[in-house]
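Input record (one chain):
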Amino acid sequence: MPGIFFLVSDLGPCAAAKTLALAVPALAKRYRVAVGVLGEAGGPFGATLVAAGFPPVAMPVRGLYDAGRVAAARQWVRSFEPDVLHAVGPAAVRLAPILGSQSPRRKPRPIVVSAADQPGGGLRGWWTRGFLRGTDQVIVATQSEVDRYNRLGVPYDRICVIPPGVPPTAPPPDPVEFRKALDIPADGRLVIVVGGFDATADLLSAVWAFDVLRYTLPDVYLVLVGDGPDRDRTERFARSLAFDDHRVRFAGLRSDVPALLALAEVVWVTHSRGGIHLALEAMAAGRPVVAFDTPELSEVIEEEATGRLVAPGNRVEMAAATRELLADPDLAGRFGAAGKARTAERHSVSGMTDQYALLYERLLGG
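The corresponding structure, as predicted from the sequence alone:
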């Protein structure tokens, strides 16, 4: 049975780690699979892999200069004898040609890359861009990523678009208990947004937009899910806007985000880059989405069919679109039903892993 070794930069809360946690158990039905992690190996996605029987192997290599650990990691990869090396993230891309190298008399292993379109600057960024140009295949989730990789020097014929998969939504947590834990009335309506409390997730814009929305809708609460460097700042900002009517709640990191979204009346996606997994999970849960109109999000959200797209950073437009959906349950229901049908048709985990397998087989000459 052919072997696929996933070399991962880290398993922190990101789209690449989420995709890996979904893909590995499904791919293991067709291949020998192993996962090696250069950085953070824990978190919910690491736990998912452990529970599925694929514990990630820690490979704490600091860089190409870390000779002893590079040699140890290369030996571990060689002992697994993979037929394909799949590098996930910029750090993994820089090390993949070294860790995946074979003796000169053997054919080089094919190298597949994903989640490396932000190589960074300096010498490491230069190395990453150089290695990207020599990779066998790059996997992207959206068409907008294709152009980013091409600008980094990857030819179009080596870039493959595989839409992300979304599993069926699990039952949501108890709505009464969830609201009670956040000091929300039992009849409070929820707008939920998820992110890393950083510039990319732009949760400050969500707080601004809710400040526009809350004046005419006294029963609506904004729930921010996640954690990150700007969380304290965001909490202070939210309280400064509404001392006497504070209806922004912070739920922290949650491992049940896809199921949690089913409790929302509307899901917001305020990401300036990425956010497509959040949008798809909301659609799979049958919830209407209001999102910033970025190239990536516009590929998965159809305006006036599964949600609303507003100009990035336009808090007034986001509040207005949300107010319309909250005032028209039939419209919100149509958007939610259409989103659920679309994710089932176009974004199943089995469909995603079938396309991964076709790509691997083509590289292996099957």
